[in-house]
């Protein structure tokens, strides 16, 4: 069964699997690299790694328009409920839920998580998606941490999406080390080139990952689709 990953720019992804459209961190309005507008976004489920504006993005508008359930950490789910999202489900690191398309597990991420107005947004998370025949690990915004080695053994991700931007998250060098620990078959960079402080050469990074680790890595352009 084919799974399609579309990079929408920054940390926003559309995962299409078995007829389900799973939108992750849909920051489209105000994202200078977004490949679609919030009005065009279609979703059956929305997954959020944390509360920062460049991840929360257009979640409220898209959830209200589509009726898609939103899965996030507990504090973000309460905030979404207070902002009119009817089906906000609050999980937390280590917890997961079985959904029609597979299992979603929230994991540790080393990062902060506040709302755009500065209020507390729980802890930042990564997300493991265990689909039929394919496991995807989106690290979310994070630093490198050694538990990634454990995640590699525990979840055996086929594909990892991870930040390489530096400044707010791990940069290119630490992202290579993360992949050395995780040992996926495929790697896709995110969270770079959106704003000046996180400018990076994605193509050079992907070549290095391929050369040093033998992992298929590709720097997508916003709007590009990666099929697995
Ligand atoms: Ni963040
Ligand atoms: Mn971010």
Overall description:
This protein is α/β, with parallel strands linked by helices and 228 residues long. The chain has one domain: Metallo-beta-lactamase, Chain A (4-Layer Sandwich), CATH 3.60.15. The chain is 23% helix and 29% strand. It has a seven-stranded mixed sheet. Helix 5 packs parallel to helix 6. The radius of gyration is 16 Å and the shape is globular. The termini are close together. The model has no long low-confidence stretch (mean pLDDT 98). It binds nickel (II) ion and manganese (II) ion. The site of manganese (II) ion (MN) has 7 residues, from helix 1.
Radius of gyration: 16 Å
- Number of distinct beta strands: 14
How many helical elements?
Answer: 6
Termini distance? 8 Å
Output mean pLDDT: 98
> Structural class from helices and strands?
alpha/beta
| Helix-strand topology string | EEEEHHEHEEEEEHEHEHEE
CATH topology: Metallo-beta-lactamase, Chain A
Per CATH, the architecture is 4-Layer Sandwich
Briefly, what CATH class?
Alpha Beta
Q: Major sheet, described briefly? A: 7 strands, mixed
Low-confidence stretches: none
Per DSSP, what share of the residues sits in E-state strands of 2 or more residues? 25-35%
